[in-house]
Amino acid sequence: MKISEIVNLLDAKVICGDDMLENDVFSACGSDMMSDVLAYVKDQAVLLTGLVNSQVIRTAEMMDMVCIVFVRSKQPSEEMIELARESGMAVLTTDLRLYEACGKLYVNGLIGNGRKSHE
Amino acid sequence: MSESLTFHYDVDGEDFTSAGQASVQVKKNLRRLGIPPEIIRQVSIAMYEGEINMVIHAGGGDADVIVSEDRIEIILADHGPGIADIELAMQEGYSTAPDSVRSLGFGAGMGLPNMKRYTDEMTIDSKVGEGTTIKMTVKL
Fold this sequence. Notes:
The complex is a heterodimer.
Chain A: H1 3-9, E1 13-16, E2 28-30, H2 34-40, E3 46-49, H3 54-62, E4 67-70, H4 78-86, E5 90-93, H5 98-107
Chain B: E1 5-12, H1 21-32, H2 37-57, E2 60-67, E3 71-78, H3 86-89, H4 99-102, H5 111-117, E4 121-127, E5 131-139
Antiparallel strand pairs in B: 1-2, 2-3, 3-5, 4-5
């Protein structure tokens, strides 16, 4: 799925990373707990979250993710946007809640990668 | 034995917002050295978790990353409260982090187990009231 398709499906606003909209991503995860993202996520390219602080961007960077979607109309700070730009990540915001946003992407083919927690 | 390369960082314990800066820097440096991406990910996640721990629990500390021919070592040393029961601290889900940290997305009791998961070797040397030194190794 192209990032531009995520923008359309979630009626999202592109905060940064306009040049990445035609990039393909193959899986995603949704969590407000960065500890869990670090523990359980593997090779997911998109992070959907309702948590808004700089550690979200750093966590995504550590996991080699390329796109962050902030749900529930959360707005990232200038500092966070700058961090994301430096790391070459696209940042989107949507009014949808986490469950709905994940669901819309999932039914349209963006999978979760199906790994169990401890693999 | 060829020469090893050491990166040193002071981890600032004052500000949770800046936690992780050293790990981001390490990631960049390892990329420049041409280390394989999967190894870089292992090292940077382990170090990031350790860095967050030092900021949450110990008021910061020192981080050294030593890159040699066959391994990358990460040494995190702090002068925080120390870990009373290391075995308990290693259990997934066990956390002494305050609720304020949980609302920031951390403190789920996954830090130490994650550090162990992403590295080949990990030793914890800790004395209550004196501090903790964690040494992790990722083999190349």
